[in-house]
Design goal:
Helix content is about 40%, strand content about 10%. It is α/β, with parallel strands linked by helices. The chain starts with a strand and ends in a 13-residue tail after the last helix.
Length: about 190
């Protein structure tokens, strides 16, 4: 059975939201039943991620790893520390076979007093992920651009404007299936009445 480790910050953490809706790893696990899907998300930054990288990622000897950090870092740190972010992501990439890595750029946020300031910081992290993907020759999901260009962007978020809702996670998982080269069997529910 292939092993997929989803490693990241608060957008990766937790299997379900407060309403019981499935989040990233639960949706993947339900679709890819023949895969072992590990949720290695935490409300953390890449600095903390490096400290748990051995136990939360490498110990599973994964076939694929998603790396999805940046939103939390931009929201909690007053100053963007892109050099540390790049160094930490680089450490992770240097310890994984490139062909097994899928980098996911952080998504913009919606509802915050200073969302434009924070989104400016997040965009810097998204750009850094894109350049690291090119430098290390890894797969990349440009979630920043996908979310910014989505015609109903506000429909993809929870009320907090940071966390993705079920629709947002379905969008992300469909991009992940493309990156993994697997087919999704998501079906639209038929409305009978």
């Amino acid at each position: 059975m292939p092993v997929l480790v989803c490693f990241g910050d608060c957008l990766t953490a937790r299997e379900v939201d407060e309403k019981g809706n499935e989040r990233l790893t639960s949706l993947i696990r339900n679709e890819l039943e023949e895969w072992i899907v590990i949720n290695a998300g935490s409300s953390s930054t890449t600095r903390e991620g490096v400290s748990r990288f051995q136990t939360d990622v490498l110990s599973y000897q994964p076939d694929f790893v998603t790396i999805f950090f940046g939103t939390q870092e931009a929201c909690i740190n007053k100053e963007s520390n892109l050099l540390e972010y790049e160094k930490n992501i680089g450490y992770m990439l240097n310890n994984l076979p490139r062909e097994r890595v899928i980098l996911i750029s952080p998504s913009p946020i919606r509802a915050e007093e200073n969302a434009s300031v924070t989104n400016h910081k997040i965009e810097g992290y998204a750009d850094k992920i894109k350049s690291l993907s090119q430098k290390f020759n890894t797969k990349h999901i440009d979630l920043w651009s996908i979310m910014k260009e989505h015609k109903a962007q506000e429909s993809l978020y929870e009320k907090d404007g940071v966390q993705l809702n079920r629709k947002g996670y379905k969008l992300l998982t469909s991009e992940l299936y493309k990156a993994l080269g697997v087919r999704s069997s998501f079906r639209r529910a038929l409305k009978l009445f």
